[in-house]
Amino acid sequence: MSDDALLRRKEEQRMKAAGRLPPGQSLTLKFPVLSYGPTPAFNPAAWDFRVFGEVKQEMGWTWEQFLALPTVQITCDLHCVTRWSKFDSLWEGVLFSDFINLFGLTDKAKFVIAHCDYGYTTNTPLEVMMDDDVLLTYKHDGKWLEPDHGFPLRTLVPKRYLWKSAKWVRALEFSATDKPGFWEQGGYHNEADPFKEERYGRRSLF
Ligand SMILES: Nc1nc2c(c(=O)[nH]1)N[C@H]1C(S)=C(S)[C@@H](COP(=O)(O)O)O[C@H]1N2
Ligand SMILES: [Mo]
Predict the structure, then answer these.
(1) Would you say 198 and 191 are in contact if contact means Cβ atoms under 8 Å apart?
(2) 81 Cα to the center of ligand 2, angstroms
(3) What residue spans define the domains of the chain?
(4) CB of 87 within 8 A of CB of 11?
């Protein structure tokens, strides 16, 4: 076995023993790219980010304005439905639960729908988004996030399979009703908790 394979296996055993490896997952030391469609070009002068729906005040940010928002750093584990898990990755971004205070939510807001370039969407209950590790992020491992991984902005929802972490996100919709997103409509599980192995839903279209 190569040194890399040995290291990987040792790390995997360690994470399993620590209860950090969800069922059916194996450890990767890489950060694979999984996108449906191309990586969008980023034009900082034209980019904007907005919030709409069940908000007290609709709001938008330019890239410069977004970068001025206070950030936090978190270390978390990532779990992809394609069965790889990546441990102890470092992220910096705006904490979602702080971000919503900038505009306020109505009492009806129960779900958050991320809208991305090229129309990718994903839905997550507000309650899940309020966790203290959910970010709007643009830095990974101390560097600007790679474009393939979602630069300029991605949501990060570490406690759900990674398809719920929306790359190239341009808007957040706050909704009273749930609106299954791209993969959720395509047959992935609506809840996507890796430790419950919620990979695929009942109504698979594939
Ligand atoms: N906008 C957008 N976000 C996306 C995707 C996508 O195709 N478009 N793919 C999702 C899926 S299925 C996965 S597994 C992760 C992969 O993230 P990564 O490429 O950074 O590993 O991004 C998610 N976010
Ligand atoms: Mo995925």
Answers:
(1) yes
(2) 6
(3) 46-196
(4) yes
**Strand arrangement, sheet containing 121-125:** 59-62, 48-53, 169-175, 111-116, 121-125
pTM over 0.90: yes
Q: Is 106 exposed, middle or buried (CB count within 10 Å of its CB: 0-12, 13-18, 19+)?
A: exposed
- Of 178, 203, 206, 177, the closest CA to residue 189 belongs to 203
* Ligand 1 atom closest to residue 167's alpha carbon, by position in its atom list: 3
Q: Which ligand 1 atom is nearest residue 81's CA?
A: 14
Q: What is the mean pLDDT of each run of 10 residues along the chain (206 residues)?
A: 89 97 96 95 98 98 98 98 97 98 98 98 98 98 98 98 98 98 96 97 58
CA of 34 to the centre of ligand 2 (A): 6
Whose CA is closest to atom 11 on ligand 1? 163
**Out of 3.30.43.10, 3.40.5.10, 3.30.1330.40, 3.90.420.10, which CATH number does the structure's domain 46-196 have?**
3.90.420.10
